[in-house]
Structure formats: C-alpha cells, structure tokens
Amino acid sequence: MSSSNDLLKSLESLVESLVPPSRIDEPLRNELIAHCQEILTSRIGQSHEPDIGHLADLVKRQLFQSSPSGAASLKFTNLLSRLLDQHVLSRKHASIQFLYSLASSPQPSASVPFLPSLAPPPPARVSHLTLPLDKLPSSPTSPQSTAKSKAQRLGEYREQSGQPHLSEHLLLRDTLYLLQGISGKYVQLSSQSESNQQEHRLEFLDNIRYIISAPTKALIHRLSEVGYLYSRVDSFVREREGSSGVGMIEQSLCHHLQTKLTEYYRLIAVLESQMPTVNPSTEGNVTDMREQETGLTLRRLDVWINDWRLRMRMMSVCVEGARESQGGALVNLIHSYTDNGDPFIRKFTDQLLEEVSKPFFATLHKWLFSGELYDPFHEFFVAMDPNLAHLQYMHPSSLPGNINQLASDGFVSPEQDDPRERRTGLTIWEAKYRFQQDMLPMFVGEAFGRKIFSTGKSLNFIRYSCHDSDWVVTREKMSDTGGSLKYSDIGGLERSIDAAYSTASQRLFDVFLEKFKLLDHLSALKNYMMLGHGDFAEQLMIALGPSLSRPANTLFRHNLTATLETAIRSSNAQTDPPDVLRRLDARMLEYSHGEIGWDVFTLEYKLDAPIDTVIDPDAMVKYLKLFNHLWQMKRIEGTLSRGWMRVAGGARTTFVRLPDLEPSWHKIRIAMAEMIHVIKQLQAYCQLEVIECSWKALVEFLNKREGDLDAMIDAHRTYLDRLVKKIMLLSSKAGREENVMNQVKDLFATVLHFQDAVENFYNFCLTESMRRDRKLDSDRGLYTGPDDPDSSLEEHLPRLLHPVHDYGSQFSDKVQTLVAALQTHPDLDCRFLGVRLNFSEYYRGKQQKERAERAETVTPK
C-alpha cells in the first residue's frame, strides 16, 4: 500500500512539473495521472510474437490521416528501414509500440516549453485579467487569490500616470537582435571612431509614450556584450575566409570558431522560438501569465547566455591574438590561457587548442618521423633557408670519378675558397634548417624542441647525405614508436620524441662509425697530421731532409708525392686501410722569395661528405697548423740528433788529435744536452700529455654513442680546440695569446743557428786535424800535401767559438724566460710543462745567480 502511494505522489509531482496548467486544473491533473497509470500497467512488451509489419501499417494509417500528401508516411518508411538495419536496439517492436502509444494519447491543453524553467515556478495566481467571471474563485477563505500582485498594481499606476514601461517582450525581441549584432527597434548599436579606435555604444530610443527602466537598460547592456563579441569573431572568420595566404593553424582556428558560431546560431534560434506570445485583448502590453511563468524573459535569457558570454570572450581574445601572431606563436597564445583557475575556461581552451594544434602536430609528425619539413606558411618552429633548399649532400661514391676525383692538382686553402661555391656538409647541416624559439609551443618546451629539431635534421641527413640503404628499416622503427600525436596526450608526445630521438641518433652514429669509418679518419689525422706514426715521421724526415733544405722554387709536387709514397712503404703506415692512404697527399703552401722547403712543405688529408660535416674545413686548417708546429719540432729533434751523433763520434776519433779544443767541445755538448732536453720534454708533453689524453676522451665519447650529430661535432671541436690551445701554448689573455708560442719559435730558430755555428766549428776542427796529421807526416819524412799557410788556430778559433757560445747562452736565457712564462700560464698542463723543463730548479738557480751578479756590479766598491 505504501509503494502505491509513493508511486501516485511521484506521478503527481512529475505531471505538475511537466504540465504547469495541471497545478490549477484538477480534472486535467487526474486525467494525466490516470493515463500514466494505464501506460505503466499496460501489456506493451509482453511475450507475444511481435508483428512489426502490422504495427507499421497502423502508424502509416495514422500518419496518412494527419498528412494526406503521404510525405510523412514515406519518411516513416525510410526511418523504419534504417532502424531495422541497426543492431544496437534489441527491442525494436517495443520501442515503436511505445512511440505509437504516445502519439495516440490525447494531447494536453497547454504546450510544454522547450526550455525548462530555471527555478521552481511559484504557485499560480488567479487573475481577473485572464480568467472569466464564471471561473473566479468564490471561497472567502483564500483572500490572496483575488488580490492583485505588486507588479500589476505598479503597472496600473504607471498607465494612469502616463509613463508606462515598455513591454518586456518587445525588449526581448530587440535583445535577440543584439545578440546577433543587429540593431533593434528600441535598442540600437552605434559605432564612433575616436583617436584611431572604433568605439561601440548602445543607444536606447526613449519615447514620451513609454520609458525603459535603468535596471532593464543595465541588463540589456550586459547582454549586448555577447552580441558585440560575436560580431568581432564573425567578422574575423569572414575576413580570413576571403583572404589568401592564411596559415593552416589559423585556418583550423577559423574552422573551430565557425563551428562554435553555428552552435551559437542554434541556441539563438531555440531562444527565439521560446518568445512569449502576445494576447491581442491586452493591446500588446501584457503577455499571458502562463507564458510569463514558463516562457523566455530577459533574466532567463541572461542565465542561458552566460556560458556563451565566457566562450565569446575567449574566442574574441584568440581572434585579437591571431591578428598579430601565427603558427606556433598563436598556439602559444592559446596555451597560455589553459593556466586558469576557472574549470569552464580551462576546458574550453583545451578543446580549442586540441583543434587548433592539429596542423602543428601533422607537421611535427612528418618532421619527427620522416625528416621532411612541410610548412608552406612558415608556422613551424623549424625553418628552412631558401638559398640552401635545393642543395643536397653529395658523396664521392656517386661521382663519375669515384673517390680518385679528390686528387685534384690545385690546392686552395679554405680562406681563399669562394663561399658561394663551397657548400660543405657542415654548412648545410648548420644553416639549411634553423630553430625558431618564438614559434616553439610552450607545452613542448625548449629541451624537447631541441630534440625534435635534432631528430628531424638527423633523419634528413641520413636520407639525403648518407644515402642509407637501411633507411627503410629505420623508418619502420620510427613509425612504430610514433603513433598519433595530439595535444591531449602530452605524455605520449614526450615518449614519442624521446624514442624517435634515440632511434635517429643511434642510427646516425652507426652510419658514421661503421659505414663511413669516422674513427679511422680521425686516427689517420692523429697518426699523420700529428706525427703519431713515429717510424713514418722518421722515414719522411730522412727522405725529405735534403730536398727541403733547398729553395722552395726548386721543389716539385711529383717528387714530394713519390717521397711520401716511399716513406709509407718503408714504415708501418703501409698497413693502414687503402682508403686512408689514398687520401694522404704532400703539398706546398704558397711561398715567397727566399723561403726554403721546410717553410712551405705540408701534408694534406682529403675528406668528403658526409665526413666533412664533423671534420670541416676550419678543422682541417687547425690540423694544418698543428702539423706545421709538430713538423718544425721534429726537424729540430732530427737536427740535434744528427749533431749529437757527430759530436759524440768525433770525440772518439777526430777530437783526440785536438786535446786543446776539448774544453770547447765539452761546453758545446752541455749546450746541446740542454737543447735536447728541452725539445724532448716539449715532444713528450705534446704527444703524451695532450694528444693521447684528448684522443682517449674522444674515443670514449664515440664508443658511448650518446647524443646526436651536434654532440659529435662539439666533441670533435672540443678535442681539436684542446689540442691547438695546449700544443700551441695559447693563453686566454687578450692581446697575449701567442706570446709563449712566439718564444718557442725563437727557441727553434736559436737551435738552428747554434747547429750551423757548431757545424762550422766542426768543419774547422776536421781541417785542423788534417793539417796536424800532415805536419806529423812531414816530420817523419812523409809528404802528404802542402802546408796551409792561412790555417792558424789562434786566429780562427775566437771567430768560430763566439757564435757557438753566443747562441748557447741565448738559448739558455730564452728557456729561462719560457719557464717563467709557463709558471704563470692560465692552463694547468702548461704550468706542469714548466715544471718538467725546470725539474731540477736549474733555471731558478741560474736566475738567482744572475741577479746576484747584477747586484754586485751595481753596488759601488
């Protein structure tokens, strides 16, 4: 019994909420409740064989009665056939039977409004204006039913005073026009230009016959904001539709805005259909009370339009930003509004950004997984230099002459090459594509943006520079890790970026190290340009020494090349790969008058794409500088070695006959030992402390295979810069970078001058020894030749020993200065070189001794 009462109460509440006239019409309410009970207790859907064909005939018969033309019946047949093809609904007969029962039931007397009421309606008031006299309530116990409301009394007072308020339904009609950016009859939009700015105003056309209250004006003004924002958005969309050159992201924005505006049009149409009807008997001033309770009013319109007010504001802000931004900058602008505390604005912005960013993610997907840049409107954060767009990397294997074409006769330094004609791999790698920070969306971040940029460049490099035959396999790996990229899945985007970056970088390292043998080329540069192959350097020095001592204009390239080939075949360098050996060549730099072969000879190692991306022409210039310095050091070492062997051998043979010159030769041996010590320490420092340590770090990096091509280039540059800085003893002090290096060059020149002086003294000693032998033979009665009357030891000895002692003392002083400069050098390894040169504090003690001598000479006796 209690469940039946609950059901009855629920049906009564449902009927009163859906059919408001039933609140005051008890027979109507009872009839509707009884009809609902019949539906609930009916046998629709019982277990009997459903006959859809018979039910369809019944529906068609009823539709033919309401529409004799047959259009409704034909439309029903079409809908029924589509319903039968669907597998979602399992009880199709029951659904059609239910709809047929509802259509066959008697219609209620009052229509239910489309829009639900925003608040529970107040109890109906029975007014003398709307009810006939025979239906007036006669119960004396309900005095409020016959009394007039305050609004009715206020309206009557205004009519009697001659200043009635304008009817709300008229203002409501104008307000709907304003929501569409159109002026109404009583409220109009006006625009004025003041100081180069368009100012929009709302004008109310007041009349002596009626007035519009201030609260109503404020409400209409509030509603008109939506119409003004709508006009701005609509004009932007129409302007972009009629213009050319609009970017894809901006087109996507316009498409999404047009979709939202279509939804807005639909809402306006629905609201317009809910306009209250006017009762002609009230002369168009008073609407039906039922319409006032359930129909559309200004305040209800404000509530319904409130969500669209926020939408229009956001759309207007995006429109204004789109006028000054494009591409990734526009996506950035929209993304900046996602950090909002209002969940409605945040949700709307996320939806907008999801649609607007689709062209961006399409371009990103093509760049990230294919290495192709499709950006016709320059909206992506990766831009291509149009001057380099037509250039591609070229490997010598695709040239007619293969790699032998590298051996051209002319040698031109990179500084003298025409930059318009020279397009190395590094130039294309660094300049063809560039990273645009202002176009990078904030939700990507700079770190991931750099990874995207590097990944696309790496894939492009693998395809068009390396001509990778395994590119298909790499592309399949990239596509497997890719998937779909979208704004709503930022976590998946980051995972895709990391996976693509790792795959592309790993493949790039494999191509360089395995296919193009980068490590072999770097090792060849170390062994040949930095004289790492000691036996090769010795053989080349022995073979070329006599030729290089001649003037530079007497040397010929084919002789140098033949000598180089001989040095290779007579040393362990012959075991190097043939591809490495045929890249090695002997050259002569441009020479001037008076220079000898030592000044212009150099080795050259030819490189091609894509290896020249890592070892670029600027790097080859640095390798050339290192070779010249180390080659000069090797020359000094060879000169001192030959001089020492001659002096040591002469002490056992020639100089025995000249015991009076033994003190002079002893001093020469001491000076030469000092020179040999300095040169050996310099060579050990360059080869062991600098070259080998730097090489170890470079090889470890390449074996790890971490990072991208930029990391590989940076690692090689770091390696080479460290070599140049430490071997050339460069300082970081401005204006004094090469001071120490110049001192070393002076040392080398002093050693050469010293050796020339020693050579002259040695030749004199040989002549003197031969003269004394002839004199001894003459004393024994043997004639071995005429006496040399000009040979006098006392006359020639001072002239020959003076330059020897002078250059020896100069060398010692310069080494002392060099040690002092190294001790204050900013580089730690250079300071350690100073310690090695002066490990016994010899130069420090000598310096103190010189200071003491100078002090004695200055002090008066």
Automatic annotation (TrEMBL):
Domain Gamma tubulin complex component protein N-terminal: 172-515
Domain Gamma tubulin complex component C-terminal: 518-843
Polar residues bias locations: 138-149
Protein source organism: Rhodocollybia butyracea
InterPro entries (alphabetical): GCP, GCP_C, GCP_C_sf, GCP_N
Gene Ontology molecular function: any one: microtubule minus-end binding
One biological process term in Gene Ontology: mitotic cell cycle
One GO cellular component, as annotated: mitotic spindle pole body
Name of this protein: Gamma-tubulin complex DGRIP91/SPC98 component
UniProt KW keywords: Cytoplasm, Cytoskeleton, Microtubule
Predominant place of localization: cytoplasm
Lineage: Eukaryota, Fungi, Dikarya, Basidiomycota, Agaricomycotina
Subcellular location: Cytoplasm, Cytoskeleton
Transmembrane parts of this sequence: none
tRNA processing recorded as keyword: no
Superkingdom, natural source: Eukaryota
Region (Disordered): 126-162
PANTHER family noted in UniProt: GAMMA TUBULIN COMPLEX PROTEIN (PTHR19302), GAMMA-TUBULIN COMPLEX COMPONENT 3 (PTHR19302:SF14)
Family: Belongs to the TUBGCP family.
